């Protein structure tokens, strides 16, 4: 008997490629949200595969908070050049300058909420009707309820009580004027799947993901890298720790973990043994029990 | 948990995947079971556990309320309602799992149909005190209708019937009598459990030494699900045509799609439907190189030996084994909308990569899913109803019966005005 078994990674890859192709086919102006984090790196890799040998038939959109790790930007620009892809940047910095958004005040100010408006503005400006994101259902309980094709109203809002049923592999991307969709090709992936896949595919990552020595401060239990955007406050001690990042975002809110894992294999081992969720160290999720859900409803990923 | 050490037979890079759905009303302990599976297989993280521990304590629950793990949304916690289907993930050294977690009490049928559409297996919970009830029959009917070939009847709350073997056997006999009318289910297993106490979920029960079968998790880990996929009828629904327009790939014209059945190899004679043009497969491409064979569920692109007009929505198949090509469809549908379906209603049908207008011709009958009787004199379908209809499409579809192929035999209906998905259909 022939063996037609397909490994779980191959199944997930094949499913994601199918979704990427459906998105390209069903929408007029799709766009791939690229943050420089590992999930969007994997997504870009899958998009390259889905349309090979043609180029990726949609642009990448980076919503830039202006608080980036420099490594992220270097990586982004190299990747875009290598793929011959188009890059569109939506700038929070510019939105602030233009007065479209107002910077939060207070000691724990973050640009997370500002990102939402900047994203929605960028979508409107580019007239994008589908924004593909690397969000996964295993990340957070509000995301466990998310569809592959997630309908957003003309304000970009998610209504969890009125989601379209999604059956088999049939996706309904029909919408009215002014509405758009968020599409999540990695819905069924877990953090472990992403790492295993990156290893299997030999995907290069920004050095931030690997253990390295860095100057940090510990604030509210979160290890933050000292940078132009994160400066020690009174009473905080700058120390050098061996750290790496599990998720990547705005430098002011992305917590690091102490780690010696400086290779992909060691990271996979570490992820397998992890007893904390991936986003456990994201300050923005700790604001309230429903922080992620509320941001999603407002138009975030 | 070191994946490599504890899985001698499989490396972590080549594990397989089982998708299952759970059914049962809220009180049957469905959320507790899912929580238990994830908790005992160490898929719950410390910060998640701490959070539900403190909530349980605050509520005054006697045990850590594992059900809290699956109540994700603010509205669910505030109002105690459950919204639509959620998906959960866990893995053991043997296998990866995707759970379609369907809420028990609102919009019942619709949710279960949604969860069941992608599942290889269904766990149907039965309360040991109540035995086989209407809902058990309803769940089984839907599992059967959706062609879930493997069903586990998890007889839960065995702790409340004194771990009685007799009671378990009684329920098994009751269910078997009923299930003899279901023709699609290949395998039914019965496992006595206590989701609350953890008996026979992950760990073998000391309270039920009369039970010699596997625990629920062991069953899920070792079940062979290979034959679910159709590797006989070759089908490639064309999603997208890849035209690089580059110097290097100047004449490249790849037909991209996810193989929906059968096997394609370079050199195979193929026919493109609905046009009927014949060609030969030149090569099967992926970004990682050419493949010597493509089969379900791989996403590939295919080049042919001659230029023919093929676009999204077409189907590539083999000449000796074509799909049905036609505009008159006979199907079972589950109705999802508050607005009832009437004969003569006009919709959009979406089938594989094809979308066309569709007109409902006739509602032949409605199924009373509690008794499985056909109600022949009622020609409307209301929310959550299941019935048999005929419809006519404005363009020909290339399809198979759902019985033969879940991908090419399924469709959804869309309301063209609201864009809502209003029905799930299975072609007869």
Task: Outline the structure in words.
The complex is a heterodimer of chains A (301) and B (428). Chain A has helices spanning 8-26, 38-51, 70-83, 92-97, 112-125, 191-200, 264-273, 291-298, and strands at residues 30-33, 60-64, 87-91, 130-132, 149-152, 180-183, 212-219, 222-225, 239-245, 256-258. Chain A is an alpha/beta fold and 301 residues long. Chain A folds into 2 domains: 8-197 and 290-298, 3-Layer(aba) Sandwich (Rossmann fold); 204-285, no CATH class. In chain A, the strands form 2 sheets. Chain A has a 6-stranded mixed sheet, with helices on both faces. In chain A, α2 links the parallel β1 and β2. The radius of gyration of chain A is 19 Å and the shape is globular. The mean pLDDT of chain A is 84. By secondary structure, chain B is of the alpha+beta class. Chain B has 3 domains: 3-222, P-loop containing nucleotide triphosphate hydrolases (Rossmann fold, 3-Layer(aba) Sandwich), CATH 3.40.50; 235-317, Elongation Factor Tu (Ef-tu), domain 3, CATH 2.40.30.10; 324-427, Elongation Factor Tu (Ef-tu), domain 3 (Beta Barrel), CATH 2.40.30.10. In chain B, strands 7, 8, 9, 11, 12, 13, 15 and 16 form an 8-stranded antiparallel sheet that branches. In chain B, strands 2-3-1-4-5-6 form a 6-stranded mixed sheet, with helices on both faces. In chain B, a hairpin with a 2-residue loop joins β12 (277-286) and β13. Residues 1-10 of chain B have low confidence and may be disordered. Chains A and B meet through α1, α2, α6 and α7 of A and α3, α4, β2, β3 and α5 of B.
């Amino acid at each position: 008997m022939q063996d037609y078994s397909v490994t779980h990674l191959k199944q997930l890859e094949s499913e994601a490629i199918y979704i990427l192709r459906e998105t390209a086919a069903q929408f007029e102006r799709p766009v791939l949200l690229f943050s420089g984090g590992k999930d969007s790196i994997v997504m870009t890799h899958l998009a390259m595969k889905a349309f090979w040998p043609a180029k990726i038939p949609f642009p990448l959109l980076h919503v830039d908070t202006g608080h980036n790790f420099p490594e992220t930007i270097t990586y982004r620009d190299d990747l875009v050049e290598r793929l011959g892809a188009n890059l569109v940047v939506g700038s929070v910095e510019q939105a602030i300058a233009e007065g479209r958004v107002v910077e939060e005040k207070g000691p724990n100010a973050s640009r997370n909420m500002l990102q939402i408006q900047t994203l929605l503005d960028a979508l409107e400006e580019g007239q994008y009707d589908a924004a593909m994101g690397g969000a996964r259902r295993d990340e957070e309980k509000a995301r466990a309820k998310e569809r592959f094709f997630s309908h957003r109203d003309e304000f970009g809002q998610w209504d969890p009580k009125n989601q379209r049923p999604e059956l088999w592999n049939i996706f309904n991307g029909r919408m009215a004027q002014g509405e758009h969709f968020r599409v999540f090709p990695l819905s069924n992936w877990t953090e472990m799947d992403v790492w295993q896949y990156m290893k299997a595919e030999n995907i290069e990552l920004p050095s931030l993901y690997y253990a390295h020595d860095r100057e940090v401060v510990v604030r509210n239990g979160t290890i933050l890298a000292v940078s132009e955007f994160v400066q020690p406050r009174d009473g905080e001690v700058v120390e050098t720790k061996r750290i790496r990042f599990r998720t990547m975002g705005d430098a002011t809110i992305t917590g690091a973990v102490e780690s010696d894992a400086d290779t992909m294999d060691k990271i996979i081992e570490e992820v397998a043994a992890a007893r904390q969720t991936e986003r456990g160290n994201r300050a923005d999720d700790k604001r309230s029990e429903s922080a992620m859900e509320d941001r999603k409803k407002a138009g975030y990923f | 948990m070191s994946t490599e050490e504890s899985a001698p037979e499989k490396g972590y890079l080549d594990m397989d995947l089982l998708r299952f759905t759970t059914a049962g009303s809220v009180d049957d302990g469905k959320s507790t079971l899912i929580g238990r599976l994830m908790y005992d297989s160490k898929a719950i993280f410390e910060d998640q556990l701490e959070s539900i521990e403190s909530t349980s304590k605050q509520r005054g629950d006697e045990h850590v309320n594992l059900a809290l793990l699956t109540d994700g949304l603010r509205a669910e916690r505030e109002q105690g309602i459950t919204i639509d289907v959620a998906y959960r993930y866990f893995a053991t050294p043997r296998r990866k799992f995707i759970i379609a977690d369907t809420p028990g009490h609102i919009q019942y049928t619709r949710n279960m149909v949604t969860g069941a559409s992608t599942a290889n297996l269904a766990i149907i919970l039965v309360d040991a005190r109540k035995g086989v009830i209407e809902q058990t029959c309803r769940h089984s009917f839907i599992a059967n209708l959706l062609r879930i070939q493997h069903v586990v009847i998890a007889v839960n709350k065995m702790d409340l019937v004194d771990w009685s073997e007799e009671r378990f056997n009684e329920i098994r006999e009751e269910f078997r009598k009923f299930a003899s009318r279901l023709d699609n289910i290949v395998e039914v297993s019965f496992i006595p459990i206590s989701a609350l106490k953890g008996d026979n979920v992950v760990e073998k029960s000391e309270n039920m030494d009369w039970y010699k079968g596997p625990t629920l998790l062991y069953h899920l880990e070792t079940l062979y699900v290979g034959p679910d996929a159709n590797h006989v009828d070759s089908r490639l629904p064309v999603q997208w045509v890849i035209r690089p327009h580059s110097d290097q790939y100047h004449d490249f014209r790849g037909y991209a799609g996810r193989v929906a059945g059968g096997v394609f190899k370079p050199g195979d004679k193929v026919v493109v439907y609905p046009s009927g043009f014949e060609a030969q497969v030149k090569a099967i491409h992926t970004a990682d190189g050419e493949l010597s064979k493509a089969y379900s569920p791989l996403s590939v692109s295919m080049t042919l030996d001659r230029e023919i007009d093929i676009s999204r929505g077409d189907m590539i198949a083999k000449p000796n084994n074509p799909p049905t090509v036609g505009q008159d469809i006979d199907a079972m549908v589950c109705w999802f909308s508050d607005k009832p379906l009437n004969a003569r209603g006009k919709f959009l049908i979406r089938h594989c990569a094809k979308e066309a207008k569709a007109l409902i011709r006739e509602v032949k009958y409605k199924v009373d899913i509690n008794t499985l009787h056909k109600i022949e004199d009622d020609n409307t379908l209301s929310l959550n109803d299941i019935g048999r209809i005929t419809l006519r499409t404005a363009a020909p579809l290339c399809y198979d019966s759902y019985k033969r192929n879940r991908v090419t035999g399924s469709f959804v209906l869309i309301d063209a005005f609201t864009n809502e998905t209003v029905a799930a259909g299975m072609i007869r």
